[in-house]
Amino acid sequence: MGHGMAKNIRQKGYELWVRGRSNRAPVESLLAMGAKEAASPADMAAKCDIIHLCLSTSAQVEDVLRGSDGILAGVRPGLIVIDTSTADPGSTVKLADELLSRGAHMVDAPLGRTPKEAEAGTLDAMVGCDEALFDTVKPVIECWAGTIKRIGPVGSGHKMKLLMNFIGMSYGALYSEVVVLGAKIGIPPQTIRDVIGPSRMGNGFFETFMRYVVDRDRDAHKFAISNAAKDLRYISNIAADARVVTVMASAARHYYAHVEAIGRADDYVPMLSDHVGALNGVNMESESKKNSGK
């Protein structure tokens, strides 16, 4: 989990153990607040009643649990693992079964909103677990979340978060096509923002997306294309398992896969517009300098 979430847990009076990574600055900050540092996930499992995870992929979550010094190596009956990652629900359910066989529990509680809300303790949480376990973990989740919704059994929180990101990443692909097509036919991005923004089709995602497209604010929407592509792969897996046709998800996924393939996976989602522009012979940075014709 990030500094903001951990800070809020500590400030609410809970004893806090952290597992440091290469970036020591947030770890040192938490240690200065009274947190303690565990030697490994297994060490943390031996010391803690609740462990929070927030990792990039399900493969990383699986490694933290199943590795030689992972959580399962130090698990105690009653341990609760709260996975706040955006993860593959199928993997989550399998890990939950492995924990349950050892008397421990998995809760999936993926996040919504931004690092700003993480620092403020006002993130959104979509929780998957049974009702009794939800009552147990809710006071802890309330340390870092302002809106908490139990979706259903374990795995359902990750399903809901992926559906949310399916909408968002599809917006990213759609908006990219819109601004590039607009540029091709003489409607600059500024005009599109001026017309769509205040209309019923405007939304927070559109606002931050267009802040990059028009204003070239690269930090307007800091969600990496690598994560977008991963989430759409997970959505495709869910759809395949459910035998559901998802033409939109497949189309959006190909754009993000293209950007990964050309070595730009660290670009942020609004920058997809530049890559769609390049595919169509349009320089979107130049187009952003054209005014709205007011």
Set down the secondary structure blueprint.
Blueprint lengths: L2 H9 L5 E2 L5 H9 L3 E2 L3 H7 L2 E4 L4 H9 L4 H4 L5 E4 L5 H12 L4 E4 L2 E2 L2 H6 L2 E6 L2 H11 L3 E8 L3 H29 L4 H8 L7 H12 L9 H18 L4 H15 L10 H8 L4 H5 L6
Parallel strand pairs: 1-2, 3-4, 4-5, 7-8
Antiparallel strand pairs: 6-7
Helix pairs in contact: 1-2, 9-11, 9-12, 9-13, 9-14, 12-13
Short description:
The chain has 294 residues and is mainly α.
Taking the alpha carbons of the first and last residues, their distance comes to 46 Å
Query: What is the count of β-strands?
Result: 8
Radius of gyration: 21 Å
Question: Class of the largest domain, according to the CATH hierarchy?
Answer: Alpha Beta
Class of secondary structure makeup: mainly alpha
Helix content: 55-70%
Main β-sheet description: 3 strands, parallel
Which CATH architecture of the largest domain?
3-Layer(aba) Sandwich
Count of distinct structural domains: 2
Low-confidence stretches: none
Estimate the global geometry from the Cα principal axes.
elongated
Provide the spatial order of strands within the biggest beta sheet. 3-4-5
Mean pLDDT score: 95
The number of helices is 15
Q: What fold name goes in the CATH topology slot of the largest domain? A: Rossmann fold
CATH superfamily of the largest domain: NAD(P)-binding Rossmann-like Domain
Approximate strand percentage: 5-15%
* Elements, N to C (H/E): HEHEHEHHEHEEHEHEHHHHHHH
